Amino acid sequence: MAYKIVVSVQKRTLSLFKDEKLVKTYPVGVGKMLTPTPTGYYKIVNKAPNPGGPFGVMWMGLSRPHYGIHGTNAPSSIGKQVSHGCIRMHNHDVLELSKTVPIGTTVVIRAI
After folding, report:
1. pLDDT at residue 93 in the model
2. pTM for this entry
3. Residue 92 known to be catalytic
4. Quick one: which of 20, 22, 26, 23 has its CA closest to 8?
5. What is the separation of C-alpha 55 from the centre of its chain, rounded to a whole number of angstroms?
6. Where are the domains of the chain?
7. Which one is catalytic: 70, 84, 90, 92?
8. What is the pLDDT of residues 15-58, one digit of tens each?
9. Residue 97 CA to chain centroid, in angstroms?
10. Nearest 5°: CA angle at 35, between 112 and 4?
11. Active-site residues (predicted)?
12. Phi/psi at 73 (5° precision)
């Protein structure tokens, strides 16, 4: 069973696929104009529960240094272009996702 995450920056969604079938779609916050979320193909390289600060209850680092999928201490920012390029999720959503996907999961970030 292979998982894949696809992020749409324009739609501000993160979709989880298992064996190419859509499992769930989550609302996310993305990078602002001056610090956009980088598009491309990445992998989850680490997980850090309770990283502190603005990162909420979970950090999942991407293979592009300094970028990740994480929770937030500002839930009203979900669905907006507000981050420094990271993908923000509601804390309960990022916990659910982090329990599902292993390190090494492919993350595809698309502009559309």
Report:
1. 98
2. 0.96
3. no
4. 26
5. 11
6. 3-110
7. 70
8. 999 999 999 999 999 999 999 999 999 999 999 999 988 999 99
9. 9
10. 45
11. 70 (proton donor/acceptor), 86 (nucleophile)
12. -95, 10
